[in-house]
């Protein structure tokens, strides 16, 4: 406490003032001098006690900050009823709370990164193992041409699977990091549906799946590329879960408040206990194919949500799955 130059100066001034007043008092009358001397000593003592109390609070505040800096879980900064010290305490509490929130957020992001890397390794392990086996079989010198072509096609399929996994996880990471800048534009639902279904026309044809649409001239204001990606993943899911000879239908409607796109298929639909997990990352339902990764629908939901929309899943009347995408025109 006495290392503070300001406090030492104040005490010296108090002592000098007390001495001067006491000297004047004794000159006037001994009793007056004694009273002034006692008053000065008392005021100086009160000043010292106040300074000591103030520095005790500052010391407690310093220890609290030290605990925060050493990453203790709880932030214990006591309130102060003194003017300037109260303001300082309040500001330091705000700062430490902010630092703790940032520290917790960084820890959470670190855990997410660790989980993402683990998921990436887990998802890529299967196709990499298959590719390694295929390369070994292709190395056989007496391998018939028919088998060689079949192995090459399978190798290409596994390579495409790895590419899709990597690109999808990268897109999810960009959305998580909020580095994606959407560029909304007005386009018709027909344009969006045509672009989304284009890469799926061949798989649908091979399975004999009938695809139909009804858009009634509906339009929406969204980012073209990202929204096509979202709808394409939902259509891909419908194609994979629709049996041969089934059908997939997409309907769009526009109102004064929203534009809604509904995707229905004639597959097995969802079990009641699965509906709450449909959009979770790396979740695979009991009806999922062996090639299913469980990230396509998660990416779709995040893309739609980032643009202020919603997407839900349920069992359609009459069987099959139904996805409903809604983009609102106004904030209600």
For the largest beta-sheet, the strand count, sense and barrel status come to: 5 strands, mixed
Share in helix: 55-70%
Percent strand equals 5-15%
Distance between the termini: 59 Å
Per the principal axes of the C-alpha atoms, what is the gross shape?
Answer: elongated
Helices and strands, in order, run as HHHHEHHEEHEEHEE
How many DSSP H or I helices?
A: 8
**Structure classification:** alpha+beta
Q: Kindly report the spatial arrangement of strands forming the biggest sheet.
A: 2-4-5-7-6
How much is the average pLDDT? 80
Radius of gyration: 36 Å
Topology, number of strands = 7
Low-confidence stretches: none
Walk me through the structure.
The structure is a single chain. The protein contains eight helices and seven strands; from the N terminus they run H-H-H-H-E-H-H-E-E-H-E-E-H-E-E. Helix 2 (30-69) runs parallel beside helix 3 and helix 3 (83-138) packs antiparallel against helix 4. Strands 2-4-5-7-6 form a five-stranded mixed β-sheet, covered by helices on one side. A two-stranded antiparallel ribbon has the order 1-3. It is an alpha+beta fold and 332 residues long. The two termini are 59 Å apart.
Brief characterization of the structure:
By secondary structure, the chain is of the alpha+beta class. The protein contains 8 helices and 7 strands, in the order H-H-H-H-E-H-H-E-E-H-E-E-H-E-E. Helix content is 59%, strand content 14%.
